[in-house]
Design goal:
Layout (H helix, E strand, L loop, with lengths): L3 H20 L16 H26 L6 H15 L1 H10 L4 H26 L6 H7 L3 H19 L1 H15 L4 H8 L3
Helix pairs in contact: 1-2, 1-3, 1-4, 2-4, 3-5, 4-5, 5-7, 5-8, 6-9, 7-8
Length: 193
């Protein structure tokens, strides 16, 4: 199957996710800078989630650029990823509106963990067609970044009960790992004759 419809649908869903997140930023009643302070946790949550959505969109784009054919299992794996990403606006709002309380931070981590697992599953489904998608298969290799991300997310969940900022820091470390689009794919595509 051709990948164009999958890409268009994914781009549309991600655009809607970002739109929903920004609509959760409510304008304060006052016109002074101190009136913004109560909104700071909500804004910080929004920025963190915006970065994560951007990372997923960017890396999804790079991954799909290295792919020539998709299958029905890829369509379902992509929907599984989009499902978890679609929960980010809700969990972002809940976390920010509750000043990074442990339970919302844990559930934010669960959503991030499941999105990372879904991305891993999507990548694995794409690699199952090595003749058509060999550039992706060779570029991702042993998928260390993916496995490390899953491990860090899992470790962050119980640590939120020690202190939520420990978990938030781990989430940001994972974001840092993925902030630059997957160079493995870029290098493989640039080395193609």
């Amino acid at each position: 199957m051709n990948k164009d419809r999958l890409l268009a649908f994914s781009d549309g869903v991600i655009a809607i996710i970002i739109t929903i997140m920004v609509l959760e930023l409510h304008v304060p009643r006052g016109a002074e800078l101190p009136d913004l302070y109560p909104l700071l946790p909500v804004f910080i949550s929004y920025v963190i989630s915006y970065v994560f959505i951007g990372i997923y969109w960017n890396n999804h784009h790079h991954m799909m650029h290295a792919v020539h054919q998709i299958s029905g299992s890829v369509l379902w794996a992509n929907l599984f990823l989009l499902f978890w990403l679609s929960l980010i606006p809700f969990i972002t709002s809940w976390m920010g509106n509750n000043n990074f309380a442990p339970i919302p931070v844990v559930l934010y981590g669960v959503v991030l963990l499941m999105a990372a697992l879904a991305y891993y599953i999507l990548e694995k489904n794409l690699i199952q067609y090595p003749a058509e998608n060999k550039a992706l298969a060779h570029a991702t290799g042993d998928r260390r970044k993916e496995k490390l991300s899953l491990l860090l997310y899992a470790a962050a969940l119980p640590l939120a009960f020690v202190h939520p900022y420990i978990s938030l820091t781990i989430y940001l470390v994972v974001a840092g790992i993925w902030l630059v689009p997957d160079r493995r794919i870029e290098r493989k595509l640039q080395s193609k004759p």
